[in-house]
């Protein structure tokens, strides 16, 4: 996620519980991916789990971007 996007998200966290929940989920998934990437070797199960987490993380980002899009549309 780009710095600008993250700043926009942080501006709305205090008054948008859905966005806050998605952001927390995204950060948690990001941390889990870091744990997998820090390993020298992944088992087949870990590789599958890593791919599943990547998809979930991307989906949460897409949902956050959709919410930000609504905010940006409202300010135009």
Task: Describe it.
The structure is a single chain. This protein is mostly helical and 76 residues long. It is built from three helices and no strands. Helix 2 packs antiparallel against helix 3. The chain starts with a helix and ends with a helix.
Summarize the structure.
It is built from three helices and no strands. The protein has 76 residues and is mostly helical. The relative contact order is 0.15.
For the secondary structure, the number of strands is 0
Number of DSSP helical runs: 3
* Alpha-beta content class: mainly alpha
Q: What's the N-to-C terminus distance?
A: 23 Å
Characteristics of this structure?
76 residues; mainly alpha
Architecture blueprint of SSEs:
Layout: H1 3-12, H2 17-37, H3 44-74
